[in-house]
Amino acid sequence: MAGAWIGLAVLALALAWPVPIALSKAAWPARAPGTALALWQAVALSGGLSMIGALLAFGLTPFENDLGVASTLLSGHILDGPVPAQAGALQIVSLAGAVVLGLHLVLSLATTAANTARERHRHRALIELLSSPLQGSPGTRMLDFPAPVAYCLPGVRSITVLTEGLVRVLDASQLRAVLAHERAHLRQYHHLVLLAFKAWNIALPWFPIANRAEKAVALLVEMLADDDARREVDDASLATAIAIVGSPWRDGDPAASAIAADEIVPEADPETLGARVSRLISPPGSLSRAARALVLMSGVALVAAPVAVLVALV
Fold first, then answer.
1. Do the domain assignments include residue 16?
2. What's the burial of 142, exposed, middle or buried (CB within 10 Å: 0-12/13-18/19+)?
3. Which of 10, 7, 32, 30 is nearest to 19 (CA)?
4. Helix extents (H) in 4-66
5. Residue 21, pLDDT above cutoff 70
6. 10 Å Cβ neighbour count for 113?
7. Element (H or E) spanning 160, and its range?
8. What is the number of other CB atoms lying within 10 angstroms of the CB of residue 46?
9. Does this model's pTM top 0.85?
C-alpha cells in the first residue's frame, strides 16, 4: 500500500485533464449517448475519489496506512499537541486536505441541490399562476407568451411548459416530438445527473475540466431525450422542432429570459444545437455491443480502483 497514493495521484491527474479532453472531443458518444453518459459519471466520481484517496493515502503513510491507527494517535494531540513523532508536516497537511476536499464537494452538492430546489419551487409557483392546463395533455401547462419555448420542471408533480407561440408554429408531429423530448428528461431523471455536474463545476470553478464535463453531459442528455422522441416521430419532424425551440429568441426580449430561467438544461448554444440536428439529419451508426461493454467495464474499473484503496485504508 506504500505506493497507493502515487497510483491514485496519477489516476486523479489523468482524470483531471487528458481523459476528459479526449472524451469531450471523441465522436463515438453521439453513437451511444447513454454509454457515454455512464462513462462521464464514472470519470467524475473516480476523479473525486482519487483526489481524496491520494491525499488520504499519502497522509497515512506514517501510520501503517491505517485510518484507525492515525485517528487513535492523532485524536489525543489535536488540542494539546505535540503530534506523534512519525507524523511529518506534509502528512498532516495531506490528511487535512483530504477531509477539507471531501467536505467541500459534499457541501457543494447539498448547497446546489437546495438552491436548485428553491428556485424550481418559486418558478413553478409563477408558472401555475400565469399558465393554464393544456387540454388532452396531463402534466402540461400552456403559457401565454409569443416566443417558441418548451421546457420541463422536475419535482414531486413534474410539469412540462409550452408557450402559445410554440404551439402556433409547430405542426402536430413536431409538437408531439417536443412533448416526448421533455417528458424523457423527466422520466430518465436527467435533472439529477445535471445537478451533480453543476455542483462539481461550482465546487471547482478553477478546474476547467469541470466546465467541459458539464457541457458534454448537457449535450448527452439532450441526445438521449432526442432518441426517446424518435420512437414517436420521424427524424425530420424532430430536427425541425429542435431548430425552432432552440432559436435565439431571448436576445430580443429581456422579459423572456425570466420566463424560462429555470429550464432543466441550459439554453443550447449554436454548437450544441447543430450537433443535435446534424445527428438527426445524418444519423451515425450505433456503437457495437462489444464496444459498449468495453466502455462500461472501463467505467466500472475507474470507480473500483479508488474505492478499493479507500476501503483498504479504512
1. no
2. middle
3. 10
4. 4-16, 18-25, 33-59
5. yes
6. 15
7. strand 159-163
8. 26
9. yes
Question: How far apart are the C-alpha atoms of 218 and 194, rounded to whole Å?
Answer: 7
- Please check whether residue 156 lies inside any domain of the structure: yes
Q: 203 lies in which domain range?
A: 132-283
Please check whether residue 67 lies inside any domain of the structure.
Answer: no
Does residue 141 lie within any of the structural domains? yes
Give the H or E element holding residue 159.
strand 159-163
Q: Report the C-alpha gap between 208 and 148 in whole angstroms.
A: 33
pLDDT in tens, 260-281: 444 433 355 778 899 999 999 9
Give the whole-angstrom CA distance, residue 166 versus residue 277. Answer: 18
**Count of other CB atoms within 10 angstroms of residue 212:** 16
Tell me if residue 205 falls in helix, strand or coil: coil
Number of domains in the chain: 1
Write the DSSP string, 174-204. HHHHHHHHHHHHHHTTHHHHHHHHHHHHHH-
